[in-house]
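User: I'm putting together notes for a lab meeting next week and I want to include a structural view of one of the chains we've been expressing. I don't have a solved structure, so I'd like a prediction I can at least talk through. The sequence is below, exactly as it appears in our construct file.
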Amino acid sequence: MPPDFVEQSLPQAAEASGWRTFYVVALTMLVAAGAWVRFSDSIAGLVPGLAAPGQAAAPSDHRVQGLLELGLIPAAASNEAVLAMMLPAGDEAALRQAVGRRRARLVRMPLFESDGGSGAMVQVEADGLTRLVQLTAQPVVLTIPMAQVGTVRFRPLDARPGGVGIGAITLTGPVTLPTLAAGQLLEVGVVAQ
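Assistant: Thanks for the context. Below is the predicted structure for the 193-residue chain, given as structure tokens.
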């Protein structure tokens, strides 16, 4: 074999070996991530369909399975809706910009106290905005910002025996959410339509 051939093939072999190592490492990371998703308890709690065989997701009163469908406020009415929210000037301007740039949408969420009581105070958080709402048996319409799909968190502030029952009126009809004690947190997935 001529010496030129040996000198030229060594760099090419080293380059091929580097790519081979890269592919092996990437494949190993992909398999490890898939195994983590498949056998992780935290993932199984969020998405029960990904639970390992024989492993049931732990029941939780802090998360509602599925999504609530809420009515989207038309873009033409968004300025009036933001104004009606009575936010501080800086927050109002930031929300108007986010809605104008289509990074956020405004949805209507009618809430009511499902156990028939009246006057329960509930903290509602959506997309970084926290609002205090006093629930009654009649629906109270709350305007909240979110992306196409988001999460709304409810935290009752009243300490009542038996907890506070929260209901929401969605596009598919009224929904009763789990009863919560003071300080408990309920997370609900929401889709804006």
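A couple of points you could mention at the meeting. The CA atoms of residues 48 and 56 lie 7 Å apart. The chain has two domains: 3-50, 63-192.

User: Perfect, that's what I needed.
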